[in-house]
What we know:
- 24% of the residues lie in helices and 23% in strands.
- It is an alpha/beta fold.
- Strand 9 (250-256) and strand 10 form a beta hairpin.
- The chain starts with 6 loop residues before the first helix and ends in a 5-residue tail after the last helix.
- The radius of gyration is 18 Å and the shape is globular.
- It has a single domain (7-286), classed as Rossmann fold.
Amino acid sequence: MGGWYSIADVNLGRVDVRRATLVALSLGFAGLGGCAAHRGPTLEQTLARYVPADLRASANRGREILGPDGFLAIPKGVRRVWVDVGAHHLETTKAELRYPDVAVIAIEPLKEAWAHWPDSDRVIGIPVAVYLDRGTMDFHVNALDDTSSLLESTGDDRTGALTKTVEVRKVPVIRLEDVLNAVPEGIAIAYVKTDVQGVDLQVLQSAGESLRRVERVRSEVTNLDAYKKLDGKGMATETEMKSYLRKMGFDLIAEDGVQADRGWLDQIYLNRQRAWVDRLWHDFRFGSVAN
Length: 291
């Protein structure tokens, strides 16, 4: 799914008055709801404890990702961020960088993926996995690297060749709330996308109340028996995902990438608190989406 029209579209005369009005509304409501109160360590403290400086530098071509105030160093002119958890090669979010008011926060523990990211200060790389607990965990690097996961593969006949583990490595792990709380006030968190092979629900749960600041969520659901649960967690059902996000104020509005027998699919959720202005954007940009 693509992004929204930016202020540059108006300046360059690409949009009419109706679009300009929507841009103005978007800028006026950026950051609606404010920043959730910090609970637990800040991102600065968490990275200092679990993520070596050289690892952070490697994922960002030497750029520092935190400002002097401890918040993420969002470049001047950026109005909104997309948070890509399980970013891999930025297959879902790279296209949004064509809008100069958008930055992508790319969260990816697989070091082989970082070289595929654009060399831009609007790509903020966080070289970690995300889960319920901060610390260090085993990360299973699989034959098809975008099937790599914190969960161990089952060897299911339909996915075994793709999810066969070729290496297990230790990776740093943080909570999603650490990242969301480090986005400065006034910067809209337009989108959170998760594609983390079986622990998508746990990633979203790790955001806590900070998830309510997000406008949209796109999350993968895996119905195939491809991964083993970890201490009874992981491999959430569609019902569990929908129930949790509804409790957090999100409505399911669309599905994408639905595979045969619903083995894999992405579900797209809209924050009800932001629904009226966000629906204007979405319907104008992509056409109406039925609930």
